[in-house]
Amino acid sequence: MDYVNAFWVGGLICLLAQILLEKTKLLPGRIMVLLVVIGAFLSFFGWFQPMQEYAGAGVTVPLVGYGHLLMKGVQEAVDKEGFIGLFKGGFTTGAVGCSAALIFGYLASLIFRSKMRK
Q: What is the pLDDT of residues 36-91, one digit of tens each?
C-alpha cells in the first residue's frame, strides 16, 4: 500500500503543477519555485511530516520535498547557531543535492552530444 500512496500523492502534486502550467501564464521556473515554497510552508507548520509518513517518496521526491529539506536545515541551524543559522542552514542541507546535480549534469555533457532541433 506504500507504493500506491506514494504514486497517487506524487501524481496529484505533478497534476496540480501541470494544471498551473497549462491554465495560467506562470512560467515553469515560477511553478518550480512555488512548489519549493509550498514545501517550506508545509514544513514550517508541521504538516509535511505526517504527509511524508503517509506518502513517503510521493511527497519527498517532487520539489515540495526540497522545500522541506531547506526549511528543516534552517530550523536545525537556528536552534544550534542562533540568528546566523537563518542564512546558513538552507545552504548546508541543500548543498549535497545541488552539487550532485551539477556534477552529474557536467558528466552527462561530456558523454553525450547535444543536437540542434530544427
A: 999 999 999 999 999 999 998 888 888 888 888 888 888 888 899 888 888 888 88
- Grid cell, residue 55, equals 506518502
| Degrees to nearest 5, angle at CA 74 with 70 and 80 | 145
Give alpha helix (H) positions in the chain. 2-23, 28-44, 48-55, 57-60, 63-81, 85-111
Query: Would you mind telling me the total number of residues written for the chain in this entry?
Result: 118
Is 8:51 a contact under the CB 8 Å cutoff?
no
Percent of the chain with pLDDT over 90: 47
Is residue 99 classed exposed, middle or buried when 0-12, 13-18 and 19+ CB atoms within 10 A define those classes?
A: exposed
pTM of this prediction exceeds 0.90: no
